[in-house]
Fold this sequence. Notes:
Layout: E1 20-25, E2 31-36, E3 40-43, E4 46-51, H1 55-63, E5 66-72, E6 79-90, H2 94-110, E7 120-131, H3 150-169, H4 173-188, E8 193-199, E9 204-211, E10 221-223, H5 227-235, E11 239-242, E12 276-284, E13 287-296, H6 304-331, E14 359-364, E15 369-372, E16 375-379, H7 380-396, E17 400-402, H8 403-407, H9 421-435, E18 439-445, E19 448-453, E20 457-461
Parallel strand pairs: 14-20
Antiparallel strand pairs: 1-2, 1-5, 3-4, 4-7, 5-6, 6-7, 8-9, 8-13, 9-10, 11-12, 12-13, 14-15, 15-16, 17-19, 18-19
Helix pairs in contact: 2-5, 3-4, 3-6, 4-6, 7-9
Amino acid sequence: xxxxxxxxxxxxxxxxxxxxxxxxxxxxxxxxxxxxxxxxxxxxxxxxxxxxxxxxxxxxxxxxxxxxxxxxxxxxxxxxxxxxxxxxxxxxxxxxxxxxxxxxxxxxxxxxxxxxxxxxxxxxxxxxxxxxxxxxxxxxxxxxxxxxxxxxxxxxxxxxxxxxxxxxxxxxxxxxxxxxxxxxxxxxxxxxxxxxxxxxxxxxxxxxxxxxxxxxxxxxxxxxxxxxxxxxxxxxxxxxxxxxxxxxxxxxxxxxxxxxxxxxxxxxxxxxxxxxxxxxxxxxxxxxxxxxxxxxxxxxxxxxxxxxxxxxxxxxxxxxxxxxxxxxxxxxxxxxxxxxxxxxxxxxxxxxxxxxxxxxxxxxxxxxxxxxxxxxxxxxxxxxxxxxxxxxxxxxxxxxxxxxxxxxxxxxxxxxxxxxxxxxxxxxxxxxxxxxxxxxxxxxxxxxxxxxxxxxxxxxxx
Length: 462
């Protein structure tokens, strides 16, 4: 290789921001040039290309295993020429799985599942790396690796401490997620972030918090395995994309069912024109807690070191969520009085404002979906919880409840372990605030909350 130039120094060239091209020749010396959207850096001596549609290139390599690859730095626009020797095509293993996961995620968003797929990971030995002289008219070229400074890395270490402290100080799940996303924006300018919690009972991811978007998207769902986020959840592996085109915008699943047969979709928050996206699984051991997503309009916003850094942040969030879940059970102690250990003091319902308009809550029991004044509100377990609270309040006049008593209601079908009750209350609170602000769920202490209605309520079940 050229002295002083390592493949790792050229990491920007392998991010697909500027297309590269590969030149091969057949046994008779007839050349062929093909464009590449992505090159995978294996190590300082090897690169890999995805085998998909380059039939002529593959035939040439079988006859003559030498190739020339030219890559371009998207910041300096300096070109580098790599001389390669084809070694093998891998059809399984860690490298193949990593490349296939990215391609499968892309296929899910472009409607090419089963067509746009990885056939093999072609591995090449890099024999030399050359600076392409005269490619630029500028008299000086920034040497690879010269821009890296320790100061940036030091600031990230301090930022990690900052984020961790914010997470540790959080008193409940909602404040933990808000503090984590706020800290990422304040200290690192990650201005567009989303957190999705794994709902194991439903087999999907549910948006619990977001930052930097016009609408929160709380309650938006992603099926495990669906698109970029779902692929990360299924494989428990990070995905980082650069230079996304219009086909890779966050796809929204369109639900066409009519009310009573399904429910409207809550749109997943996302930029209309993201150029960089990172989706990171939050895990504890083999258990999936959720997925953290960050995106940006800058195609160079996220680099390799962000993967490790945000991975640490994700671990901190996962541990914090797990701690909140474990702590909830002993803390959810109902008030005791002469009526018994699980009794809760009843309170008179708050009188609605005389001029307030009546709000109609319609519950489709078979589909477990609630609509308010004809607009979709919530479904599944959160819908059952809300219907229980509204019904109890109308029957008995109660407005005060405890987490414990709701958890113990077998009719709600909460999972016996890791029921994510706090996350379901967060969904209810946000959805009510967006669709029916006259009805509120307000925390009144550890393990206690109040249902407050500021308008007349009509309940209809079908």
